[in-house]
Amino acid sequence: MLHTDHLGVLAAQSESEFRAEIARFAQNLGFRTVDALTVVDHDDGTTEFICVDNIGNPDWNAIDPSYWKRDPVMQHCKTSSIPIAWGAQNYRSQGVMEIYDLVSAYGLRSGLSVSSHMRGGRHFALCVHTDRDLESDTRHVAYALPRLQLFAAHALDTAFRLFLPPDDLALAPLSVQDVGVLSWTLDGKSAEEIATLLCISEDSLKMRLKELAHELQCENEYQAALKALRLGIIC
Question: What residue stretches are annotated with the HTH luxR-type domain (predicted)?
Fold first, then answer.
């Protein structure tokens, strides 16, 4: 079953509701601020950025964009789906402490960031920040990171629904078994559990999950299940 936080962000119907839900999640997770960045690479070579945050300082969104081209956390999220826990060391190792001084002045001393890169030039990153040092708080990072990854999958679905045009998706009807697989995935069942229910091998199931994610133009099976929920394929 979906957690209350997940239901809340999935139900958001406006930018303000979306902001309230991601802020509530971040603060419940022990972080002061959050930003969600939706990015679209257009066919003409331009890139569109839609940022929703609760940083609360109008100067934040007026920062010179050239800074972000040298920001190591931003550049990591731009190309990688591997989550990152970051702090001063990330900037120090790249010799860009002046950028760290800039972001930390807004209370962003350290944080966690996750990102997803979808077909059609669509990207999404969710970052939670704190005004304290996370580098020595490994227990909090270990607790928070998997929860952030799971919440981000739900936030991505809502961000794309609110801020981007509808998917141009021509999808052949799914079998009853495929619908069941996506539904069980959304319920949090593991690949092993679903394979047992279907009396097939776990490897066969994982292959089908990858195929379903590809057909639904998603990065992984959980995002595919959420998209199937939004499209009314599962309920």
Answer: 167-232
